[in-house]
């Protein structure tokens, strides 16, 4: 088994900085890069991004939807891109937002197994079927040293319609955060009393050490941080930067300078292609802003 994802992420962030770049080959971006909207165009786009960035950024986050729309040939492009990104030293977070009943979730989580054709380091998952439905993915992640990022407070404007709903005095988003805090606490399972936030000793940031393998997604677009991340013990993936309006200043406003935050940018970096130097410069600009 590889080392636990949380440890590998902390090492990657220490060596390369916290930036995650999303690989989102939208049809308009392919066109802008002068590429056809077909598997060949997809392959050239993916190769270019991987070659330009996999040796320098901590995490690459391919968005599965943009590969699936090209059918099996698109998935073959993704398999190749994921393998090459990992070989070049980037962690790969597969953005698939999976969520289903346990038996199906178990199959989705197979992507965290090293022998899977798409073998990724971590996976985004949706908790809509209830925190317990994600348990098979937690088990697979633990077994193979993988990670999960669970949607908690997403970056889209109407996300609060569901995520602010209150269940037994806690918002849905808070239930998600508390569950992930539990998964980062040894021995805890869904249904147990919630672990004390202070139980995870806070050494790296006010959100706890970034060494847990289970993280949450909290958008950089939120007007205010309306979930309590204290003692989370794992990373916070923060999308919504650039194209969705979020900025480095928003990240600082929402999260302070906690090292456990992994900011992720897709279009705002990818628009600088297809020149690899342009892509690298755009990623470096974001990295500088985020750490500045
Ligand atoms: O899980 C995600 O990555 C995610 C969660 C969220 O709340 N908002 C969000 O935009 N994302 C993803 O992050 C990427 C954002 O792309 P850009 O807006 O181009 O940076 C897309 O692939 C989204 O699917």
From TrEMBL:
One biological process term in Gene Ontology: 'de novo' UMP biosynthetic process
GO MF: orotidine-5'-phosphate decarboxylase activity
Catalytic EC class: lyase
EC number annotated for this UniProt entry: 4.1.1.23
Annotated keywords: Decarboxylase, Lyase, Pyrimidine biosynthesis
InterPro entries: Aldolase_TIM (IPR013785), OMPdecase_AS (IPR018089), OMPdecase_type-2 (IPR011995), OMPdeCOase_dom (IPR001754), RibuloseP-bd_barrel (IPR011060)
Domain Orotidine 5'-phosphate decarboxylase: 18-282
Similarity comment: family membership: Belongs to the OMP decarboxylase family. Type 2 subfamily.
NCBIfam families associated with the record: pyrF_sub2
Record's protein name: Orotidine 5'-phosphate decarboxylase
Organism for this UniProt entry: Geodermatophilus obscurus (strain ATCC 25078 / DSM 43160 / JCM 3152 / CCUG 61914 / KCC A-0152 / KCTC 9177 / NBRC 13315 / NRRL B-3577 / G-20)
């Amino acid at each position: 088994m590889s080392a636990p994802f949380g440890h590998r992420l902390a090492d990657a962030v220490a060596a390369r900085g916290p930036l995650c770049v999303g690989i989102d080959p939208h049809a308009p971006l392919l066109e802008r890069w002068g590429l056809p909207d077909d598997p060949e165009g997809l392959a050239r786009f993916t190769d270019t991004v991987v070659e330009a960035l996999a040796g320098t950024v901590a995490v690459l986050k391919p968005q599965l939807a943009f590969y699936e729309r090209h059918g099996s040939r698109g998935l073959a492009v993704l398999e190749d891109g994921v393998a090459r990104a990992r070989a070049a030293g980037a962690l790969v977070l597969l953005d698939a937002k999976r969520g289903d009943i346990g038996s199906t979730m178990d199959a989705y989580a197979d992507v965290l197994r090293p022998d899977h054709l798409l073998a990724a380091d971590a996976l985004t998952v949706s908790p809509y079927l209830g925190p317990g439905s994600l348990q098979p993915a937690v088990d697979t992640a633990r077994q193979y040293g993988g990670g999960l990022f669970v949607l908690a407070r997403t970056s889209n404007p109407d996300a609060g319609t569901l995520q602010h709903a209150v269940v037994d005095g806690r918002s849905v988003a808070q239930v998600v955060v508390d569950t992930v805090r539990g998964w980062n606490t040894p021995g805890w399972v869904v249904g147990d009393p919630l672990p004390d936030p202070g139980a995870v000793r806070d050494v790296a940031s006010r959100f706890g050490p970034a060494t847990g393998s289970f993280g949450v997604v909290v958008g950089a677009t939120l007007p205010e941080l309306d979930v309590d991340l204290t003692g989370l013990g794992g990373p916070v993936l923060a999308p919504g930067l650039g194209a969705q309006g979020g900025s480095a200043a928003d990240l600082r406003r929402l999260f302070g300078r906690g090292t456990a935050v992994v900011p992720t940018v897709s279009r705002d970096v990818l628009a600088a292609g297809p020149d690899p130097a342009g892509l690298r410069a755009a990623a470096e600009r974001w990295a500088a802003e985020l750490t500045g």
